[in-house]
Amino acid sequence: MATETQTRTENPGTLTFASLPPFPSDIPTAPLHRLSLSKLRSDASESDRLFSSCKDLGFFYLDLRLDQEGEALLKDADDLFNLAPQLFDLGREELHKYDYKSQDSYMGYKGFGSAVVDEKGNLDRNEFYNIPKDDFLGISSKPFAHPQILHDHDTLITSYMRSSHSLVLLILQHLEKHLRLPPTTLTSLHRQMQISGDQVRFIKSPPQPPSDQRTALGKHTDFGSITILFNRLGGLQILPPPSLTPPGQAPEWTYVKPLPGHCIVNLGDAMVKFTNGLLRSNIHRVVSPPGEQAKETRFSLVYFSRPEDEVVLKRLGGGDVIPELGEGEVEEECSAKEWILMQAMRLRNVREGMSDEEKRRLWEESGRGK
Ligand SMILES: O=C(O)CCC(=O)C(=O)O
Ligand SMILES: [Fe+2]
């Protein structure tokens, strides 16, 4: 049993999760900055560090402890980690009823092995359940059906959505300030009660045979604005940009070590488009957890915030920090709704009996092999 002191210690090297094998101490980990939510509310230098993290890596840890809203979010995340196994225990056959791919939606269930993860045409090794914010906040015009167990936990799910969304708005407010954009430029594109692709995602990846450990979730950048991620077992890896790689070395996939009391925050493609490449959405993937952790089933919990459906993903005007477009450069007019749908569905066009060649083509056409 982990004690309060184990999970509350200030030394990240000794932070562990109760009842799970520890993250190995002898493997390299990604150099994410560790920011604090409570400091972010009052300390200008913490805000500066947030801006730097969003520019150089596009990923950071956020310590949620010692902050009222942060602690509430941690509690909800804990409760959702207890709910996740119960949801997936409904079984793949039952959950398939909630796969809405045939309705051209990525919401609901994604079955095990239904997306391509690499150039060889290998299939993923995880299941998702995507819960649309709009269905649970009661603003969808046509909500999807979801398993009863989710409705039974409606209060928890909506509380988690509201807390995550409010964290996203806080981060966007800091970014607006550093980008010297008029106040609400970013937050007004992410109003909680407007229709968007925002979702909670549960992911389950079972242990893989030691002789056949593959990528569970293929390399990608997130498509939306800000992602709030909780996980307990390693497995998430990022490919650091050349600017953070020692001179003369090629960037290498590096594990992000989960830290209790923290979430991992990362930026998606919409933030890159809004800022003409000033902010970064870094490439990442999920592989087998390292060391002893590989024997465990891995769950993760994600809140994806995305711009409201009708927002056009292009450079934001009104500030003097975002780089100008190049001479004669014309941006595509793609709405957030179109962009997210296209990105989310591309690799999920795997059909029964598809040849390896066809699967490889799906990967190629997704543009992720670049
Ligand atoms: O499970 C994780 O740690 C990361 C999941 C992820 O990157 C995603 O769902 O986009
Ligand atoms: Fe991701």
UniProtKB/TrEMBL annotation:
What's the name of the protein?
Related to oxidoreductase, 2OG-Fe(II) oxygenase family
Q: Name one molecular function that GO assigns to this entry.
A: oxidoreductase activity
Report the family membership: Belongs to the iron/ascorbate-dependent oxidoreductase family.
Any Pfam family from its record, for instance, is 2OG-FeII_Oxy
Q: Which Gene3D superfamilies is this protein grouped with?
A: B-lactam Antibiotic, Isopenicillin N Synthase, Chain
| PROSITE patterns attached to this UniProt entry | FE2OG_OXY (PS51471)
InterPro entries reported for this sequence: DIOX_N (IPR026992), IPNS-like_FE2OG_OXY (IPR044861), IPNS-like_sf (IPR027443), Iron_ascorbate_oxido_reductase (IPR050231), Oxoglu/Fe-dep_dioxygenase_dom (IPR005123)
Q: Which residues form a coiled coil?
A: none
Keywords assigned: Iron, Metal-binding, Oxidoreductase
**Lineage: superkingdom:** Eukaryota
Q: Which GO terms describe its biological process?
A: small molecule biosynthetic process
**Which SUPFAM superfamilies has this protein been placed in?**
Clavaminate synthase-like
Segments forming domain Fe2OG dioxygenase:
196-307
